[in-house]
Each structure stands twice: as C-alpha cells, then as structure tokens.
Design a protein that fits this description.
The chain has 180 residues and is of the alpha+beta class. It has two domains: 11-63; 66-179, no CATH class. Helices cover 34% and strands 32% of the residues. It contains four helices and ten strands. The strands form two sheets. The chain has a six-stranded mixed β-sheet with strand order 5-9-10-8-7-6. Helix 1 (15-34) runs antiparallel to helix 2 (39-64). The longest helix is centred in the N-terminal third of the chain and has 26 residues, at 39-64. The protein starts with a strand and ends with a helix. Keywords: Membrane, Transmembrane, Transmembrane helix. The chain crosses the membrane at residues 12-32, 44-63.
Length: 180
C-alpha cells in the first residue's frame, strides 16, 4: 500500500469550529446572566454547550481525516467521514490530468450533495459547475489537483502534494488495454 500526501487545509478551515465554540460560550454566558429571570434558559444552555462542542469537534476531526492510498489495483480516498474505493480499471486514465482549478473553473465544486465544505476544504460528493456532473472531491488547495474521470461518469478530484506521482503509479498498475 502506497500513501500519497494530501496538503493540510489552510487555517480558514479551523474558523468554523472555532466560531461555533465561541458562539456556544457566548450562549452559555447569556443564559447565566438571564437565569435569574428564566431558570429554564440555564438548563437549555447546559444542553446546547456539549452538543455544539461535539459538532465542532466532529467538524475539526473530519477535516483532519484525509488520505489517498493505492492498495494493489484499488485507489482508496478517505475524505472526512467518507471513504471511496475505486478499482484502477474503472478510471479513464487517458483523460486524467493535473489541473489548476483557478484556470479550469468548470471542474470546481458547486452544489454539495453529500460532503463537507469549509473555507479551504471540500470533501465528499459535489456537482461540478460545468454541466452538473458528479464529482468526488478531496480539495485542500486549488492548484495541482489530480482530475481522474471514472468510466461510470463520476470524476475524482484530489489535492495532492505530488499528483503526477499518483498518476504515474495508476498508469503502471492499470490494465494495458483499457487505460491508454
């Protein structure tokens, strides 16, 4: 099994969990101040605080779970709570390429169908801007994104530190008749 490094998301991805925790603490402070007038406000705050802390923690952990591995003839992409296993034979490697999403804006994620979207981090299933095609994304950067079309119609888009290394490995593993 060979792992391919995924760049860490920028600091902006931590903004959402941090703002959630600050909002939870502000809500508890407000409930404590209001508890003399309405004792029920304090009870609700003690329920809301752990829930918001849990949600913030899950968002933070989800952004930390990211990996791309080639295990034999299977590409395994872990992105947040999602894991996608794609046989290399199902990839259209003749159409695969390394792109910059600032130049190829049609490949950018548009509508999230099942995934996570934070500033500087998109993971899971999205629709592409160009033609509403399905895409499975693991993006932490818009530069040097490996675009891997699948024969079934979906496309994998992966931010990698060395995308060409994965593409070369996939081409070496792929069945000769179908990939070129």
């Amino acid at each position: 099994m060979t792992r391919y490094a995924v760049p860490a998301p920028g600091r902006a991805a931590l903004l959402v969990p941090a703002v959630s925790l600050i909002a939870a603490l502000a809500g508890v402070a407000y409930a404590v101040l209001r508890s003399r007038e309405d004792p029920q406000a304090l009870q609700l705050a003690w329920i809301a605080l752990p829930v918001l802390a849990l949600v913030s923690g899950l968002i933070w952990l989800g952004a930390r779970r990211r990996s791309v591995e080639l295990d034999g003839a299977t590409l395994i992409v872990r992105a947040g709570p999602h894991t996608r296993r794609v046989p290399v034979s199902e990839l259209d490697l003749a159409q695969a390429r390394v792109v910059d999403l600032d130049e190829h804006t049609g490949l950018r994620p548009s509508i999230k169908t099942l995934g996570s979207a934070l500033p500087g981090y998109q993971a899971g299933w999205f629709r592409m801007r160009d033609g509403w095609r399905k895409g499975y994304y693991l993006l932490t950067s818009r530069q040097r994104v490996l675009c891997l079309p699948e024969r079934g119609g979906a496309t994998l888009l992966l931010s990698l530190e060395q995308p060409q290394a994965l593409l070369d490995a996939l081409q070496a593993v792929a069945p000769r008749g179908r990939s070129r």
